[in-house]
Specification:
Blueprint (H helix, E strand, L loop, with lengths): L5 H21 L1 H30 L10 E8 L2 E7 H10 L3 E8 L4 E5 L5 E8 L3 H4 L6 E2 L14 E4 L1 H8 L9 E4 L2 E8 L14 E4 L15 E8 L5 H16 L11 E6 H6 L3 H32 L1 H10 L5 H10 L4 H21 L3 H14 L3 H16 L1
Parallel strand pairs: 5-10, 7-9
Antiparallel strand pairs: 1-2, 1-11, 1-12, 2-11, 3-11, 4-5, 6-9, 7-10, 8-9
Length: 400
């Protein structure tokens, strides 16, 4: 194989690009149609994939996120897992399948007011002191909420989000230790959350505050605060195994439920990923499949446009085939600027048609040569079912 300089390859590529662009400029209608078809297919696919990627494919933004689960009851009055404070205290102390358990108020993110020089309505949530450590998250600046601060009548402290730190405090590193007025209460900022931090519920939050669960008030059965409970499984323990291990504790708690409602209350241990996508997973897959079909349809349309254009220029290809060592190179070049999909199919088919025309034109009046040309052309013209399948298959391969 001859040793061709790299600069020669670059020159060839640039020459092909110039030729292809000139060809598209000569036929702006064809170029615009092909580009619009591809823009519709690719744009829709990218937009939809950016939405479903986070829910279906991208890993959770927590270390070993597959070990994180939500724990609690499922009841007709509440479709998400919850635990009463009395049960949570007992389960946390007696459970065995979890490395740690944590909770936050069932109200989730609620409104709070930053009452300062520039007042603002923020989203605040009350969490247990080990909330971040259970999820394996460390603050970007400062520290976590301590257990002493998570006690009733403890000091007023807060962790602020990265977005709030940037927008209200200009990204000042000295914000840790500063006192702000939150709901007219002096509150000390003890840390700043990382930019990629998110709640397991995917709800936006600006401020994390200590939950201050009164343990003494939670010891009476079937009483206490309503909590959302999360846990980190021990290594090698599955969600099903954890549910089986919690079954005795669940049966004890069920004794305090009125008998007519006991059959409606279920124990649930499921992954955080399933919690986030349970209601929309099927819809996301259907949406992704639909937009994939749209992309393949757009690719197939562009491939058919290129084939039709090559068929119209068949005589030109035949002349070029006689003058050039690589027949029908033009068809392949013309397709590159508008789309890569179907380019190789068009080149192959154009080469077949050009070769057939070359046989016919070079044969003159020779009937035997004409018959050879006809046979060659016939071998290139496939049944329409095979042809369409080939184009769809090529479009699928290129689109994938």
């Amino acid at each position: 194989m001859p040793n061709i300089p790299f600069s020669r390859h670059i020159e060839t590529i640039l020459a092909d690009a110039r030729y292809g662009i000139r060809g598209l400029l000569r036929e702006p209608g064809f170029a615009l149609t092909a580009l619009l078809a591809l823009a519709l297919g690719v744009g829709s696919a990218v937009a939809v994939f950016s939405v479903v990627d986070r829910a279906l494919f991208r890993p959770l933004p927590y270390p070993e996120g597959e070990r994180l689960v939500t724990v609690g009851y499922l009841a007709p009055i509440e479709q998400r897992e919850f635990l009463l404070g009395s049960d949570y205290v007992v389960w946390r102390d007696q459970q065995s399948p979890f490395a740690s358990m944590t909770s936050f108020s069932a109200t989730g993110v609620s409104d709070c007011d930053l009452t300062a020089e520039k007042p603002a309505r923020l989203g605040c949530m009350y969490v247990e002191s080990n909330f971040l450590t259970t999820f394996g998250v460390q603050p970007l600046l400062g520290r976590n909420i301590s257990r002493e601060e998570d006690q009733p009548n403890g000091p007023e402290v807060a962790l602020i989000s990265y977005g709030l730190w940037k927008s209200k405090f200009g990204g000042d590193p000295s914000v840790v230790g500063r006192t702000i007025s939150l709901d007219k209460q002096p509150t000390t900022i003890v840390g700043v959350l990382r930019p990629d931090f998110e709640l397991p519920t995917l709800a936006p939050v600006d401020v994390l505050l200590p939950q201050r669960l009164n343990l003494a008030a939670q010891h009476r059965p079937n009483t206490g605060a309503v909590l959302r409970v999360y846990a980190r499984l021990k290594p090698g323990v599955s969600a099903a195994q954890a549910a089986a291990a919690l079954e005795p504790l669940f049966e004890d708690s069920l004794q305090f439920v009125p008998p007519q409602f006991r059959n409606d209350v279920k124990l649930s241990v499921r992954s955080v990923r399933e919690l986030q996508t349970h209601d929309v997973r099927l819809a996301f897959w259907i949406l992704l499949g639909a937009v994939g079909a749209l992309l393949m349809l757009a690719s197939a349309n562009v491939a058919n446009l290129l084939l039709a254009r090559a068929a119209v220029r068949r005589r030109e290809f035949a002349i070029r085939a006689r003058r050039e060592s690589r027949p029908a190179r033009t068809a392949n070049i013309d397709g590159k600027p508008s789309a890569g999909v179907g380019g190789r199919d068009v080149w192959r088919r154009a080469r077949c048609m050009a070769t057939a025309d070359l046989h016919r034109h070079s044969a003159g009046g020779n009937s035997a040569a004409k018959r050879d040309g006809s046979q060659s052309a016939g071998s290139c013209v496939c049944a329409w079912r095979v042809r369409n399948f080939g184009f769809i298959f090529r479009a699928c391969a290129r689109a994938g």
